[in-house]
Design brief:
This protein has 328 residues and is α/β, with parallel strands linked by helices. It contains 13 helices and eleven strands. Strands 3-1-6-7-11-10 form a six-stranded mixed sheet, with helices on both faces. The protein has a three-stranded mixed sheet with strand order 2-4-5. Helix 4 links the parallel strand 8 and strand 9. Helix 1 packs parallel to helix 5. The longest helix has 19 residues. Keywords: Transcription, Transcription regulation.
Protein backbone atom coordinates (compact mmCIF):
# COMPACT_ATOMS: atom_id res chain seq x y z
CA UNK A 1 0.00 0.00 0.00
CA UNK A 2 2.90 2.35 -0.44
CA UNK A 3 2.39 5.70 -2.12
CA UNK A 4 -0.59 7.42 -3.66
CA UNK A 5 -3.13 6.12 -1.17
CA UNK A 6 -6.39 8.08 -1.12
CA UNK A 7 -7.77 8.38 2.41
CA UNK A 8 -11.14 10.01 3.02
CA UNK A 9 -12.80 10.77 6.34
CA UNK A 10 -16.57 11.20 6.13
CA UNK A 11 -18.29 13.17 8.87
CA UNK A 12 -21.89 14.03 9.77
CA UNK A 13 -22.92 17.61 10.41
CA UNK A 14 -22.01 17.32 14.11
CA UNK A 15 -18.60 16.01 15.08
CA UNK A 16 -16.44 15.75 18.17
CA UNK A 17 -13.24 17.73 17.79
CA UNK A 18 -11.10 14.88 19.16
CA UNK A 19 -11.87 12.41 16.38
CA UNK A 20 -11.48 15.13 13.78
CA UNK A 21 -8.08 15.94 15.21
CA UNK A 22 -6.97 12.31 15.45
CA UNK A 23 -7.54 11.43 11.81
CA UNK A 24 -6.05 14.73 10.67
CA UNK A 25 -2.97 14.17 12.82
CA UNK A 26 -2.39 10.64 11.50
CA UNK A 27 -3.29 11.05 7.84
CA UNK A 28 -3.07 14.78 7.15
CA UNK A 29 0.64 15.40 7.77
CA UNK A 30 3.60 14.59 5.58
CA UNK A 31 5.44 11.85 7.43
CA UNK A 32 7.34 10.31 4.54
CA UNK A 33 10.49 10.73 6.63
CA UNK A 34 9.37 7.89 8.93
CA UNK A 35 8.23 5.53 6.18
CA UNK A 36 4.59 6.47 5.64
CA UNK A 37 3.44 7.49 2.17
CA UNK A 38 2.14 10.98 1.59
CA UNK A 39 -1.58 10.28 1.82
CA UNK A 40 -4.04 12.04 -0.45
CA UNK A 41 -6.20 12.95 2.53
CA UNK A 42 -9.42 14.89 2.93
CA UNK A 43 -12.42 15.02 5.24
CA UNK A 44 -15.75 15.48 3.50
CA UNK A 45 -19.32 15.89 4.75
CA UNK A 46 -21.84 13.06 4.52
CA UNK A 47 -24.61 15.65 4.36
CA UNK A 48 -24.86 19.09 2.82
CA UNK A 49 -24.11 22.08 4.99
CA UNK A 50 -21.36 23.22 7.35
CA UNK A 51 -19.91 20.92 9.98
CA UNK A 52 -20.44 21.93 13.59
CA UNK A 53 -18.49 20.79 16.63
CA UNK A 54 -19.96 20.29 20.08
CA UNK A 55 -18.26 23.48 21.18
CA UNK A 56 -19.85 25.92 18.76
CA UNK A 57 -17.14 26.05 16.11
CA UNK A 58 -18.15 25.65 12.46
CA UNK A 59 -15.97 23.94 9.85
CA UNK A 60 -16.47 24.44 6.14
CA UNK A 61 -15.37 21.40 4.16
CA UNK A 62 -14.76 21.23 0.42
CA UNK A 63 -15.98 18.32 -1.66
CA UNK A 64 -18.58 15.68 -0.94
CA UNK A 65 -18.74 11.98 -0.23
CA UNK A 66 -18.50 11.11 -3.94
CA UNK A 67 -14.78 11.06 -3.15
CA UNK A 68 -15.46 7.71 -1.46
CA UNK A 69 -15.71 6.14 -4.90
CA UNK A 70 -11.98 6.65 -5.47
CA UNK A 71 -10.72 6.12 -1.92
CA UNK A 72 -8.49 3.28 -0.76
CA UNK A 73 -9.26 3.85 2.92
CA UNK A 74 -12.53 5.33 4.15
CA UNK A 75 -12.69 6.68 7.70
CA UNK A 76 -16.26 6.53 8.96
CA UNK A 77 -16.49 9.24 11.57
CA UNK A 78 -18.81 9.08 14.63
CA UNK A 79 -22.53 9.38 13.89
CA UNK A 80 -23.44 10.80 17.24
CA UNK A 81 -27.22 11.20 17.09
CA UNK A 82 -27.86 7.68 15.68
CA UNK A 83 -30.23 9.03 13.06
CA UNK A 84 -30.48 7.08 9.82
CA UNK A 85 -27.47 7.95 7.62
CA UNK A 86 -28.37 9.14 4.10
CA UNK A 87 -29.03 6.28 1.69
CA UNK A 88 -26.53 7.75 -0.78
CA UNK A 89 -23.81 7.64 1.86
CA UNK A 90 -24.54 4.01 2.75
CA UNK A 91 -24.56 3.07 -0.94
CA UNK A 92 -21.16 4.73 -1.39
CA UNK A 93 -19.75 2.70 1.51
CA UNK A 94 -21.10 -0.51 0.01
CA UNK A 95 -19.55 0.32 -3.36
CA UNK A 96 -16.23 1.10 -1.71
CA UNK A 97 -16.17 -2.24 0.07
CA UNK A 98 -17.25 -4.12 -3.06
CA UNK A 99 -14.34 -2.73 -5.07
CA UNK A 100 -11.78 -3.58 -2.38
CA UNK A 101 -11.43 -0.47 -0.21
CA UNK A 102 -10.82 -0.71 3.53
CA UNK A 103 -13.34 0.91 5.88
CA UNK A 104 -12.55 2.06 9.40
CA UNK A 105 -15.35 3.02 11.80
CA UNK A 106 -14.60 5.31 14.72
CA UNK A 107 -16.77 5.10 17.83
CA UNK A 108 -20.41 5.41 16.66
CA UNK A 109 -19.18 5.21 13.09
CA UNK A 110 -19.75 1.52 13.80
CA UNK A 111 -23.47 2.32 13.62
CA UNK A 112 -23.01 3.63 10.07
CA UNK A 113 -21.13 0.52 8.96
CA UNK A 114 -23.81 -1.67 10.52
CA UNK A 115 -26.52 0.38 8.78
CA UNK A 116 -24.76 -0.29 5.47
CA UNK A 117 -24.86 -4.02 6.18
CA UNK A 118 -21.06 -4.26 6.26
CA UNK A 119 -20.85 -5.72 9.76
CA UNK A 120 -23.36 -8.52 9.33
CA UNK A 121 -21.85 -11.75 10.66
CA UNK A 122 -18.80 -9.87 11.93
CA UNK A 123 -17.41 -8.87 15.28
CA UNK A 124 -17.21 -5.14 16.03
CA UNK A 125 -16.81 -2.63 18.81
CA UNK A 126 -17.79 0.93 19.61
CA UNK A 127 -17.89 3.09 22.71
CA UNK A 128 -18.98 0.79 25.53
CA UNK A 129 -22.05 2.96 26.25
CA UNK A 130 -23.40 2.33 22.73
CA UNK A 131 -22.71 -1.39 22.36
CA UNK A 132 -26.04 -2.57 23.73
CA UNK A 133 -28.00 -0.20 21.47
CA UNK A 134 -26.18 -1.37 18.33
CA UNK A 135 -26.56 -5.01 19.39
CA UNK A 136 -30.32 -4.58 19.63
CA UNK A 137 -30.56 -2.68 16.36
CA UNK A 138 -28.32 -5.13 14.46
CA UNK A 139 -28.54 -8.60 16.02
CA UNK A 140 -26.37 -10.05 13.25
CA UNK A 141 -23.38 -8.05 14.51
CA UNK A 142 -21.37 -9.43 17.44
CA UNK A 143 -20.56 -6.40 19.58
CA UNK A 144 -17.68 -6.49 22.06
CA UNK A 145 -17.77 -3.67 24.61
CA UNK A 146 -14.53 -4.72 26.30
CA UNK A 147 -11.92 -4.03 23.60
CA UNK A 148 -10.26 -0.99 22.06
CA UNK A 149 -10.63 -2.05 18.43
CA UNK A 150 -11.59 -4.99 16.23
CA UNK A 151 -9.83 -5.88 12.99
CA UNK A 152 -11.97 -7.85 10.55
CA UNK A 153 -9.68 -7.43 7.57
CA UNK A 154 -11.11 -4.71 5.35
CA UNK A 155 -13.56 -3.55 8.01
CA UNK A 156 -12.16 -2.23 11.27
CA UNK A 157 -14.02 -0.68 14.20
CA UNK A 158 -12.80 1.22 17.23
CA UNK A 159 -14.05 2.28 20.62
CA UNK A 160 -14.67 5.87 21.61
CA UNK A 161 -12.50 8.96 21.96
CA UNK A 162 -8.76 8.33 22.34
CA UNK A 163 -9.12 4.69 21.21
CA UNK A 164 -9.30 6.17 17.72
CA UNK A 165 -5.54 6.68 17.97
CA UNK A 166 -5.08 3.05 18.95
CA UNK A 167 -7.12 2.01 15.93
CA UNK A 168 -5.08 4.20 13.58
CA UNK A 169 -1.79 2.99 15.02
CA UNK A 170 -2.94 -0.61 14.68
CA UNK A 171 -3.76 -0.05 11.01
CA UNK A 172 -0.40 1.64 10.40
CA UNK A 173 1.36 -1.23 12.17
CA UNK A 174 -0.57 -3.76 10.09
CA UNK A 175 0.14 -2.09 6.77
CA UNK A 176 3.60 -0.56 7.27
CA UNK A 177 5.15 -2.45 10.15
CA UNK A 178 6.07 -2.01 13.79
CA UNK A 179 8.97 0.38 13.22
CA UNK A 180 6.86 2.85 11.24
CA UNK A 181 4.05 2.65 13.81
CA UNK A 182 6.56 3.27 16.60
CA UNK A 183 7.96 6.28 14.76
CA UNK A 184 4.45 7.67 14.27
CA UNK A 185 3.65 7.16 17.95
CA UNK A 186 6.81 9.03 18.93
CA UNK A 187 5.92 11.78 16.49
CA UNK A 188 2.56 12.40 18.16
CA UNK A 189 3.97 11.62 21.64
CA UNK A 190 1.83 8.65 22.64
CA UNK A 191 2.63 5.09 23.73
CA UNK A 192 3.46 2.96 20.67
CA UNK A 193 0.99 0.17 21.27
CA UNK A 194 -2.05 -0.78 23.28
CA UNK A 195 -3.30 -4.22 22.39
CA UNK A 196 -6.79 -4.31 20.89
CA UNK A 197 -7.96 -6.69 23.59
CA UNK A 198 -7.16 -4.24 26.37
CA UNK A 199 -10.18 -3.07 28.33
CA UNK A 200 -11.89 0.13 27.19
CA UNK A 201 -12.16 1.37 30.72
CA UNK A 202 -10.87 0.36 34.15
CA UNK A 203 -13.41 0.20 36.97
CA UNK A 204 -10.88 -0.79 39.66
CA UNK A 205 -9.25 1.99 41.67
CA UNK A 206 -5.72 2.87 40.60
CA UNK A 207 -2.88 1.60 42.79
CA UNK A 208 -1.40 3.67 45.58
CA UNK A 209 1.51 5.86 44.53
CA UNK A 210 4.16 3.51 45.92
CA UNK A 211 2.62 0.48 44.24
CA UNK A 212 2.32 2.40 40.99
CA UNK A 213 6.00 3.35 41.05
CA UNK A 214 6.99 -0.27 41.61
CA UNK A 215 4.74 -1.42 38.78
CA UNK A 216 6.32 1.09 36.38
CA UNK A 217 9.72 -0.32 37.28
CA UNK A 218 8.51 -3.90 36.80
CA UNK A 219 6.95 -3.10 33.42
CA UNK A 220 10.25 -1.63 32.23
CA UNK A 221 12.12 -4.66 33.57
CA UNK A 222 9.70 -7.01 31.80
CA UNK A 223 10.31 -5.27 28.47
CA UNK A 224 14.07 -5.66 28.94
CA UNK A 225 13.84 -9.31 29.94
CA UNK A 226 11.33 -10.82 27.58
CA UNK A 227 13.60 -13.84 27.09
CA UNK A 228 13.20 -14.83 30.75
CA UNK A 229 10.49 -17.02 32.28
CA UNK A 230 8.31 -14.22 33.62
CA UNK A 231 5.79 -15.93 35.86
CA UNK A 232 3.43 -14.01 38.10
CA UNK A 233 5.43 -15.28 41.06
CA UNK A 234 8.68 -13.86 39.64
CA UNK A 235 7.06 -10.54 38.78
CA UNK A 236 5.31 -10.27 42.14
CA UNK A 237 8.60 -10.80 43.96
CA UNK A 238 10.16 -8.07 41.79
CA UNK A 239 7.31 -5.73 42.79
CA UNK A 240 7.56 -6.74 46.47
CA UNK A 241 3.96 -8.00 46.43
CA UNK A 242 2.15 -11.27 46.83
CA UNK A 243 1.14 -12.89 43.51
CA UNK A 244 -2.54 -12.18 44.16
CA UNK A 245 -1.92 -8.54 45.07
CA UNK A 246 0.39 -8.08 42.07
CA UNK A 247 -2.18 -9.49 39.64
CA UNK A 248 -4.87 -7.20 41.07
CA UNK A 249 -2.70 -4.08 40.96
CA UNK A 250 -1.41 -4.95 37.49
CA UNK A 251 -4.94 -5.13 36.05
CA UNK A 252 -5.91 -1.92 37.83
CA UNK A 253 -2.94 -0.10 36.30
CA UNK A 254 -2.98 -1.59 32.78
CA UNK A 255 -6.50 -2.87 32.16
CA UNK A 256 -5.27 -6.37 31.34
CA UNK A 257 -3.57 -9.40 32.89
CA UNK A 258 0.20 -9.88 33.22
CA UNK A 259 0.05 -12.81 30.80
CA UNK A 260 -1.89 -10.91 28.12
CA UNK A 261 0.34 -7.82 28.47
CA UNK A 262 3.48 -9.94 28.25
CA UNK A 263 2.22 -11.80 25.18
CA UNK A 264 1.50 -8.51 23.41
CA UNK A 265 4.98 -7.19 24.26
CA UNK A 266 6.66 -10.37 23.02
CA UNK A 267 4.78 -10.29 19.73
CA UNK A 268 5.55 -6.59 19.35
CA UNK A 269 9.28 -7.17 19.90
CA UNK A 270 9.23 -10.17 17.55
CA UNK A 271 7.74 -7.94 14.84
CA UNK A 272 10.58 -5.45 15.24
CA UNK A 273 13.25 -8.14 15.06
CA UNK A 274 11.68 -9.77 12.01
CA UNK A 275 11.37 -6.45 10.20
CA UNK A 276 14.76 -4.99 10.96
CA UNK A 277 17.25 -7.86 10.98
CA UNK A 278 18.27 -11.24 9.63
CA UNK A 279 18.09 -13.27 12.82
CA UNK A 280 16.75 -16.79 12.23
CA UNK A 281 13.19 -17.25 13.41
CA UNK A 282 14.45 -19.70 16.02
CA UNK A 283 16.70 -17.00 17.51
CA UNK A 284 13.90 -14.42 17.44
CA UNK A 285 11.71 -16.87 19.34
CA UNK A 286 14.37 -17.29 22.03
CA UNK A 287 15.06 -13.58 22.37
CA UNK A 288 11.41 -12.66 22.93
CA UNK A 289 10.61 -15.52 25.28
CA UNK A 290 8.66 -17.98 23.14
CA UNK A 291 11.47 -20.50 23.34
CA UNK A 292 10.94 -22.32 20.05
CA UNK A 293 10.18 -21.34 16.48
CA UNK A 294 7.07 -23.52 16.62
CA UNK A 295 5.71 -21.60 19.62
CA UNK A 296 6.40 -18.25 17.93
CA UNK A 297 4.77 -19.44 14.72
CA UNK A 298 1.67 -20.61 16.60
CA UNK A 299 1.21 -17.24 18.33
CA UNK A 300 2.01 -15.26 15.19
CA UNK A 301 -0.51 -17.14 13.06
CA UNK A 302 -3.13 -16.88 15.78
CA UNK A 303 -2.62 -13.18 16.50
CA UNK A 304 -1.24 -11.76 13.23
CA UNK A 305 -2.72 -14.16 10.67
CA UNK A 306 0.58 -15.11 9.00
CA UNK A 307 3.70 -17.12 9.94
CA UNK A 308 6.80 -15.18 11.03
CA UNK A 309 8.70 -15.81 7.79
CA UNK A 310 5.81 -14.53 5.69
CA UNK A 311 5.58 -11.47 7.93
CA UNK A 312 9.28 -10.79 7.44
CA UNK A 313 8.99 -11.03 3.65
CA UNK A 314 5.94 -8.74 3.61
CA UNK A 315 7.62 -5.96 5.55
CA UNK A 316 11.30 -6.29 4.68
CA UNK A 317 11.22 -3.77 1.84
CA UNK A 318 9.26 -1.23 3.87
CA UNK A 319 11.49 -1.55 6.95
CA UNK A 320 14.67 -1.08 4.93
CA UNK A 321 13.33 2.28 3.71
CA UNK A 322 12.64 3.50 7.28
CA UNK A 323 15.11 5.19 9.63
CA UNK A 324 16.39 2.99 12.43
CA UNK A 325 13.99 3.92 15.22
CA UNK A 326 15.00 1.07 17.50
CA UNK A 327 12.80 -0.70 19.99
CA UNK A 328 9.94 0.95 21.83
Amino acid sequence: MMGGMIVTGVTPRMIGALTFGIVTEVFGYDRTDIGLPEFDFAIVPAEEGPIRTRYGATIQLDGDFSRIDESDLVLVMPWEDFSQPPAEYLDALRRAYARGATLMGFCSGTYVLASAGLLEGRKATTHWQNCEFISRAFPGVTMDADVLYVDEGRVLTGAGSAAGLDLCLHWVRREYGARVANALARSVVIPPHRDGGQAQYIVSPLPEAGDSDRLVEVLAWMRSNLHESLTVEVLAAKALMSPRSFARHFRAATGTTPRAWLLAQRLHRAEELLESGDLPVEEVAKRVGFGTAAALRDQFVRRRGVPPRDYRRAFRAASEECPDEGAA
